[in-house]
Design brief:
Strand content: 5-15%
Distance between the termini: 28 Å
Largest sheet: 5 strands, parallel
Number of helices: 21
Number of domains: 4
Length: 530
């Protein structure tokens, strides 16, 4: 759900001033739990340690935010911060070029850079060199940064690397037995810290933690493993699913037409008069000789039937292949009724915004039929009129396009749509059986899967899995009392393998920001759904 309309619907439904779970939000406050002690430790080590400092954690653990907080909390008068990104410039030449440019050094060499650091030290300024996405640095770049961290006797920069845990093995291979760096590993939030983090985010957007139940908070914590970046994504998805469910529940009873009651009665009266006039037309007494039963001749197109006594003014219409009657959508409109949950929630927003086929887009829409004869007509032969019929009023003349003859033999029609509707119903059953909970139950609980997306439409999940094929599967869980179909990809021995697999997924799938989760959490949700 990435469109502007979806964002507007999300903010309007919850009365939020902005998206509380966006990466950058107005007036953001640094959340201190599990991170403020690390921030203080970095300042302390920068002052007293001679080692290169490494901060590690998985994707979404808050490394970049911690780096920003470190820069923001330094004394700008005495510290010059140089921020370098390893993306696209992971070798020694690329890193040194960025550092030299930031320090106004003509030559992108270690010696020239250290000379400039010494000059700044003489004026009372220290240099903080901070590298984002450091796991993408190659061996030459790491060697150069270790050399800069060692510095010269007269001065040295304080080097900080922020990256994933794979960075540690690379540094250990270069350091051999010599201690040249110090590692700080970020820790995930506890469930209570997750609740406080959600509260702070929502409070900044003008609401509070009351938007989530205790069970929802537990689910969010478990699904995210306590990592803040994933908490943001899971919490936003949970709120959107709840919004869709609540709006669908509100709109579903009013899916019939909303015309004023007096207009409905007037149209019904016109239709009844037209039918009676057609029935009493001259030559109608010969109807029995044609051999066509009266109830066949009296069948009407959709929207021109007469309300039944207990229908409240809305004629009952049956969908082929479905035993549940639905209100008539619009008078005179015989097209099938199609619903999309996101379109109901936000006026044109569909699940296709995330690349998932919209529910009903590929399946044959249900056919709407009615075979109820007008009230007051019997199934027997038509009686001979006793007197000459009176001329039809002007309003009846406008309803003349309602012919009786073309509807002589519509009886076989419902059988074909019913059969056609039965065929698509068989296909999802096969897919659901192949992609059900049995596969997840047979996996090791310590393994990881990649969660792609969740949708309230099982047909959308089936279409997505069918389109992607391969290792894509889905399972059913219950969220806020409503079914939610969660699509996953693959099975991996550890989290790092799952993260590597995410990078290899198609760009269309990556656009939904997939994330790794344990098989154990899926198995628990399946057990709860039973």
């Amino acid at each position: 759900m990435t469109s502007l309309h979806a964002d507007e619907a999300f903010l309007g439904h919850y009365q939020l001033s902005h998206d509380p779970f966006a990466p950058r939000v107005p007036g953001f406050k640094f959340f201190p739990a599990q991170r403020k002690p690390v921030l203080g430790q970095l300042h302390h080590l920068a002052r007293y340690s001679q080692l290169l400092l490494v901060v590690t954690g998985p994707q979404g653990s808050g490394k970049t935010l911690l780096r920003q907080a470190l820069v923001a909390s330094t004394n700008k008068q005495s510290v010059q911060s140089v921020v370098v990104s390893a993306r696209g410039a992971g070798d020694a030449a690329g890193v040194l070029r960025q550092v030299a440019q930031a320090l106004n050094v003509a030559q992108a060499e270690i010696g020239a850079i250290l000379a400039q650091v010494v000059q700044l030290a003489l004026t009372g300024q220290e240099v903080y060199l901070l590298v984002d996405d450091a796991e993408q640095l190659d061996e030459s770049a790491l060697e150069a940064l270790l050399a800069l961290a060692a510095g010269a006797p007269e001065g040295r920069p304080h080097v900080f690397l922020f990256g994933e845990s794979s960075l540690i093995a690379q540094l250990e291979a270069l350091s051999l037995e010599e201690e040249r760096f110090h590692v700080i590993e970020l820790q995930p939030y506890t469930e209570e810290e997750t609740r406080e983090y959600l509260d702070q985010r929502l409070e900044g957007a003008g609401r509070g933690i009351e938007l989530f139940t205790a069970d929802q908070i537990s689910d969010i914590h478990e699904s995210s493993d306590g990592w803040p970046g994933t908490i943001n994504q899971v919490a936003r998805d949970a709120m959107i699913e709840a919004m869709i469910a609540s709006r669908s529940a509100v709109k579903r009873p009013s899916m019939g037409f909303n015309m004023p009651k007096k207009h409905v009665l007037a149209i019904s009266a016109v239709v009844v008069v037209a039918v009676v006039a057609a029935w009493l037309m001259p030559g109608r007494s010969k109807a029995p000789t044609t051999g066509a039963p009266a109830n066949e001749q009296a069948q009407l197109p959709l929207g021109q039937g007469t309300p039944q006594p207990n229908s409240g003014g809305a004629p009952a219409v049956e969908f082929a292949g479905n035993s549940q009657p639905m209100p008539l959508p619009l008078v005179g409109n015989s097209q099938p009724v199609m619903r999309g949950p996101l379109a109901e929630a936000a006026g044109g927003i569909t699940e296709g915004d995330d690349g998932v086929p919209v529910e009903g887009s590929s399946a044959t829409p249900p056919t709407v039929t009615t075979t109820a004869p007008p009230a007051g007509l019997s199934a027997g032969p038509a009686p001979t009129p006793a007197a000459k019929p009176a001329p039809a009023p002007t309003q009846v003349a406008t309803a003349k396009p309602v012919p009786v003859a073309p509807a002589v033999k519509p009886a076989p029609a419902p059988a074909k749509p019913a059969a056609a509707a039965a065929k698509p119903a068989e296909k999802p059953t096969t897919v659901a059986k192949a992609a059900g909970g049995t596969w997840y139950a047979g996996q090791a609980s310590g393994n990881y899967v990649v969660q792609i997306l969740g949708t309230s439409s099982e047909s959308a999940a089936q279409n997505f899995v069918k389109e992607q094929g391969g290792e894509y599967r889905y399972f059913k869980k219950v969220l806020n009392g409503k079914p939610l179909y969660v699509i996953t990809y693959g099975s991996f021995a550890n989290r790092d393998a799952a993260l590597s697999a995410i990078k290899a997924l198609p760009a269309k799938v990556q656009a939904g920001k997939p994330w790794p989760r344990t098989v154990a959490s899926v198995q628990q949700e399946l057990a709860t759904a039973r």
